[in-house]
Each structure stands twice: as structure tokens, then as C-alpha cells.
């Protein structure tokens, strides 16, 4: 099929490249000329495992093109995906200006029937707004949309809007796209919607050969599904973080609690890990947007409000532990940081807990030594932005290509991203490089008892030492009775 992707950021680039890999003829459009030049030279501007090879292969085979030419891109696609950013505004609501601008461009340049697919995460009701924006531009050209009131003698075109939210995990996006657990399609309940549905079923047929993965619903239900899914996952994380904080007070190991909870099939293990809080491009933004939608509709979203509050507080949890150990004035102290990205297998720094922790350490007077296997460049850009009001603090921050160098001479090591390369370090070497054998683990990578045996002072999130052998109780024959 002829596919156009508007927006060549994270979602758009993964979507377009994977659809090209399936044999479709894909054109990706973006207004950022530098990004398009980079992609056309074979350089992928984001880190996502497996994506580079797919981009290079499909460009070489002629199935994937990148352009800044709006007219060419819109003419190309029978199916046009809108995959632009919807960043949060000051009140928490999603900024739809990019999505609606893309819709206007479609109406301005389309000459043939189109299926327009909302891939961006958008508030409920956006499909109708996109359809309206397309209709307005067409009407300026004397063209009517099929299914709308038409003027006598005007040209008529079909243009249906489908809500098709993405469910891609950063760090596993290619695998998630090529092996989806579900494909949500929101269509209108009319002949136009059924026509669009048939086009989308044809496009996604390769994913349904083993079993049917498509869920068909209304456009509004599809839009709500995306927000609901992310809000639920964020809720699980914040809930576990609250339990972890309470467990510390009660001398309870949250890892034991997690295993006990997760073994219940009604709960499961996913997203039950306590830590330094969630970040990234999705959970923070989507929780805020859904909460804001509730306010606009007069519905108090109390749980979402608590989820957001807990997460913001949790990002300070590791910093609070450091201050409790060293005091509020950290001048003269140096701290090593392992991990910048908000999660492993990505270089994404958006809402990363590391930004909160590093900012707090620097502003308290500390020196900070940082390592991340992938996110060094994006991390430097993000931290420069965070320190714009105090540029003199930049001199207290250093970046190291070797993780042991980041720990060298540090009063303590802080772990903020659960990269695999951090899971089994040479602890003897680490101890020799640190000034103090002290670790604040914001991702609970290590077992407290093993760290104690290795002579480290270890502070996780809700972690306490557990016995390595079962407790022995008296046998029934030895038990006393009243």
C-alpha cells in the first residue's frame, strides 16, 4: 500500500519503517530539515534497538523515503498517518496544534480519497476535530467530503479518520510494532467508517495471520483506551512506590511483597517495581492530559491526581536519602551517577528522574560525575536546559564514558537507570574507586544482603535484608499446648 507518515519523530519513524519492512511504499514527512537530511544519509536521530538497520535496509530497497515536501507526501499516501507531537500545555492539556495543522495540510493538498489515521496520543474527540479541519480546507477548494452536506456541482472526495493509538514501549518499539498484542481501530459507524476499516484491515493483515489481534470500536473509545492504558500502568508504579516507602518504615522488603502480589494472576508482575519514579514521553504527559480532561468535564479524577503527586514526590526520594546521610549542604561532596535515560534501551531524557536528582545535588553544592551507555548526548542537552538559570553549576558536572570513572573518588554512587551493564559490576573494583562504599539504588538492582556481605552500605527503595535460609519452627511433636 501507499503510506504517508506525517511526523518523523519516535512514533512516526518506528511506524513508517516497520510498515516499509512489511512491503509497503512509505514516505515520511517532517518539517525539520536537519532531521530529514540526517535520515536520508542513513543516520537515525533517536536510539531504538534494531531501528537503524531497518531504516538503512528499507531506504536501500526503495520502500522508505524521507521528505519535507508536504504536497508530495500527501499525494503519495492512500493511508496517511498523523504521528506528530502532542506536548502538554501549562494547564496539563494536550497541545493539538501540530495534529490540527497536519489535518489542514491534508485538506489543502489531497486530490484523491484518503484514510487519515490518528497515531498520535490525542484527547477524546480529536478525530472529529481532525475531520473538521480537513473539511474546512477542502471546502475552500470547492471540494465536499462524502457524507457531509455538499454544494451542487462540487467535487466530492472520501476522507475517513481512524483512531489507531500506538502501544510502543521505548527500547522495544520495533518488537512491539512487529508483534503487537492488540491493534485498536476506532472508526465511525457508517459506510465511510466501514470503508476505512477495510483499508486498515488490509494494511494490518500481516499481524493477524496467527490470530485476530484487531479490536474495533468507536473513535472516541479508541482515543480513551490509550489514555486509560497508560494511566493504569502509571497508577501501578506509583502505588508500588507508596508501598515501598511505607515498607521502609515497617522494616519490610518490598521485593518480597512484589513477588507475593505478582503471583496473584488477577494482579500479575508487570509494572510493580518500586523505584525513583516514572518518566518518558508518555506516562507523565498522558496522566496530566486525562486528569485535565476530567476537570474540563467536571469529573474529579482523584486517583490520577494522587498518581501524579506520588510520582513527582518519588523523583526526590533518592535525593532525600542522600541529604539524610550527608546533610542539606553538599559542598565538598562528590556523587557518581549511573544512568541518565528515564529507562534502559533508550536515550530519552524527557521527565527522567535523573534530571531531578542531579539538579538537586548540584544546587545543594555537590559535584556530580555521570555515566550512561547511550544517553550522554541527550543527557547533556537536557541538563543544560535545566541549569539555564544557574549556568555556573555546569562546571560541577562531568560526563564519563567509563562507568567506573563516574564512581572514582565519589562519596556515594546513585543508580537511576536499570541498564543491564550496571547489574553485575566488579564490586571490588567499584569499592576501590569509591571514597565510601555507599550506594543509593533508585532501581533496586542489587540484593541488600549480598551488598552487606560485600561490605557496602546499601540504600534501595523499600529494600531490607532478607534471610537466606528458611526460618525453622518447632515440629508438631515439640510444640507446647495450653
CATH architecture of the largest domain: 3-Layer(aba) Sandwich
Give the overall form. elongated
Unreliable spans are 468-482
State the distance separating the first and last CA atoms. Answer: 81 Å
Spatial strand sequence of the major β-sheet: 3-2-1-4-5-8
**What is the mean pLDDT?**
93
In the CATH hierarchy, what is the class of the largest domain?
Answer: Alpha Beta
Work out the strand percent: 5-15%
Structural commentary:
With 482 residues, this protein is an alpha/beta fold. Helices cover 42% and strands 14% of the residues. It folds into 2 domains: 2-217, NAD(P)-binding Rossmann-like Domain (Rossmann fold), CATH 3.40.50; 234-459, NAD(P)-binding Rossmann-like Domain (Rossmann fold). The chain has helices at residues 10-21, 33-40, 51-60, 70-76, 97-109, 126-140, 173-178, 191-203, 219-250, 254-262, 283-296, 302-314, 317-326, 353-363, 376-386, 403-407, 427-433, 448-453; strands at 2-6, 25-29, 64-67, 79-82, 114-118, 143-145, 155-157, 159-163, 183-186, 214-217, 334-338, 367-371, 397-399, 412-415, 438-441, 457-459. Helix 5 runs parallel beside helix 6 (126-140), helix 9 (219-250) crosses helix 12 (302-314) and helix 11 (283-296) runs antiparallel to helix 12 (302-314). The relative contact order is 0.08.
Write a short abstract of this structure.
With 482 residues, the chain is α/β, with parallel strands linked by helices. The chain is 42% helix and 14% strand.
